[in-house]
Design a protein that fits this description.
two-stranded parallel ribbon
Length: about 100
């Protein structure tokens, strides 16, 4: 079951378009795992930095970049045209879906 859930998470995260972000909670809900936002974070934290899954596009509900590799995530997000103010993203502007 857990591997199926991980695959669901990876699938939803892979669908986030370049230049957009989604919250951990939105990913959990879209993957059919409502209320499991923290688990989404745990699953994504286990991915290697060079993973093809765009883990850097998943942020806190308030738009904060909260991953362990904050600087790498910020670098990737800004290269996609996302503007940040103090590691925070405007979810109304860049949020997905």
């Amino acid at each position: 079951m857990r591997s199926v859930s991980k695959e669901q998470i990876y699938s939803v995260v892979a669908a986030i378009p370049e230049g957009r972000v989604a919250s951990f909670g939105a990913i959990a809900s879209a993957a059919g795992l409502p209320g499991r936002a923290r688990w989404v974070g745990q699953v994504l934290s286990q991915l290697p930095p060079d993973s093809s899954i765009p883990w850097h596009r998943v942020v806190g509900h308030d738009g904060r970049v909260t991953c362990p590799q904050t600087q790498l995530a910020i670098s990737r997000l800004t290269s996609e045209g996302i503007e940040l103010v103090n590691t925070k993203i405007n979810m109304k502007r860049y949020g997905w879906p």
